[in-house]
Design a protein that fits this description.
Blueprint lengths: L4 E5 L20 E2 L2 E2 H11 L4 E6 L3 H15 L2 E6 L6 H9 L6 E5 L2 E3 L1 H13 L3 E8 L6 E6 L2 E7 L7 E10 L1 H4 L17 H8 L4 E6 L4 E3 L3 H13 L5 E2 L2 E2 L4 E3 L2 E3 L4 E2 L4 E3 L2 E3 L4 E2 L4 E2 L3 E3 L4 E4 L2 E3 L2 E2 L4 E4 L2 E3 L2 E2 L4 E2 L4 E2 L10 E4 L2 E4 L8 E2 L4 E2 L4 E2 L4 E2 L4 E2 L4 E2 L8 E2 L5
Parallel strand pairs: 1-4, 1-6, 4-5, 8-12, 14-17, 15-18, 16-19, 17-20, 18-21, 19-22, 20-23, 21-24, 22-25, 23-26, 24-27, 25-28, 26-29, 27-30, 28-31, 29-34, 30-35, 31-36, 34-37, 35-38, 36-39, 38-40
Antiparallel strand pairs: 2-3, 6-11, 7-13, 8-11, 9-10, 32-33
Helix pairs in contact: 1-2, 1-4
Length: about 425
């Protein structure tokens, strides 16, 4: 019998997540202290897989460094295959087949999954002799690959169907026998000029092979296509916290309501008020007199200081909001410094849903409250105001007193004249 391997596709740029992916790939965005890809590698290990092949390209060196550490911690052997040309998921698997021909579990490493909840269903599937694809029901299938099914069989996948609406879509996890996996060599270019792994299903059906599907709960899965999907992924993970886990140091005058995780080395100073669920990462400093509201995640080494309020936001590693700042429904990149009095607005005057520019197109977030997306290493001066839905590129500097109404490119220096 051939050895079962894990294949994690981790080569994508994540362009729609800019500016967050200007300084790192999407798979390395942290969710409660662990990169997105961590959950995929841990899932494969728990399925009994000891060899994981990670397909890399964009930010290759960073991915290799982080994934080696993850593999060492989890206890799996890891190999890296460089896709070089990013020509789609089917092409990524073709590159792997130059070295491996085993039965495989394949996962899209840039998708958030609650891997421990997925595990029982996948263990059962791996033990069977059929090929499987994991499906999940979503409210709008127009962003995804719609599964065409007949009973428990999958006949094919329609990428980004125009009709939209609720339906069953490809969740990005496959269990494929080696004999069927070889058929990826027959995948041709799609209308999007990519080699789509989903085309393997229709090719397999034509050859007399069968793909079946299992359906998972929608709360266990989230595609991280847009920045607000990242917010939702963290919210799903925080929603799963049921108790308080206190590993750091908390002053006696701190008030905690609900479920909270305070990781190792964190310090929460006096008169801070925390409403869970909230995650406070390793070596962070919170307070004094900070206010952390529900569904907030503060990643490793960050500082949320005096009279700073954070509401349903993600603050990435080593960022600082030392005093008199409001962060609402926002994502703050790594190594950002928000000057005193920086305010991030999250609500339009007309209370309509907030739109964000993605590749020059205004996309409706579907959120009534949505703040800013700030790239890594940004600096704001005192009394800067940032309007809802604004993106600020990495390494930009915003001068004191500026009100930011529109997107800022990376490496910009913004004063009143620039705006």
């Amino acid at each position: 019998m051939k050895v079962l391997i894990g294949i994690v596709l981790a080569a994508g740029k994540g362009k729609r997540l800019c500016p967050l992916t200007e300084t790192r790939p999407k798979i390395l965005l942290p969710i409660l202290g662990q990169p997105v890809i961590y959950r995929h590698i841990d899932l494969l290990k728990k399925l009994g897989i000891d060899k994981v092949v990670v397909v890399v390209s964009h930010f290759r060196e960073k991915v290799v460094e982080v994934v080696k550490d993850i593999a060492n911690d989890i206890g799996v052997e890891v190999d890296f295959v460089d896709q070089k040309e990013e020509l789609g998921t089917g092409h990524a698997v073709k590159v792997v087949l130059r070295k491996y021909e085993d039965d495989a579990v394949i996962s899209y490493g840039d998708i958030y999954i609650q891997h421990t909840k997925l595990l029982p269903s996948l263990i059962d599937v791996v033990r069977r002799k059929d090929n499987y694809i994991v499906g999940v029901e979503v409210g709008d299938i127009s962003r995804y690959g719609k599964l065409i099914v007949d009973g428990d069989r999958v006949l094919g996948v329609i990428e980004k169907p125009s009709e939209g609406g609720r339906g069953l879509i490809n969740a990005g996890i496959y269990v494929v026998k080696g004999s069927v996996l070889k058929l990826v060599e027959e995948i041709g270019l799609s209308p999007r000029r990519e080699y789509e792994l989903t085309d393997l299903i229709s090719i397999a059906n034509e050859k007399g092979y069968t793909f079946k599907f299992i359906k998972i709960e929608s709360e266990w899965w989230q595609d991280i296509g847009y920045p607000w999907d990242f917010l939702k992924s963290v919210k799903l993970e925080l929603s799963d916290i049921r108790s308080r886990v206190i590993k750091g140091e908390i002053d006696h005058s701190v008030t905690i309501k609900g479920a909270v995780v305070v990781d190792e080395g964190a310090v929460v100073k006096g008169s801070t008020y925390i409403e869970g669920p909230v995650y406070i990462g390793k070596d962070t400093v919170i307070g004094p007199n900070s206010y952390l509201r529900p569904y907030t995640s503060i990643e490793r080494g960050s500082h949320i200081g005096f009279s700073v309020e954070v509401k349903e936001s993600i603050v990435l590693e080593k960022s600082h909001a030392a005093h008199l700042t409001y962060i609402g429904d926002s994502i703050i990149g790594e190594n950002v410094n928000l000057g005193a009095g920086t305010l991030i607005a999250n609500l339009r005057f007309d209370e309509k849903t907030v739109k964000v520019s993605i590749d020059g197109i205004r996309i409706d977030t579907g959120r009534r409250k949505m703040g800013a997306i700030i790239g890594g290493y940004v600096r704001t001066g005192v009394n800067v105001s940032i309007m809802p839905g604004v993106k600020i590129g990495s390494y930009s500097i915003i001068y004191p007193g500026v009100t930011v109404y529109r997107d800022i490119p990376p490496n910009a220096i913004v004063d009143r004249d620039w705006i």
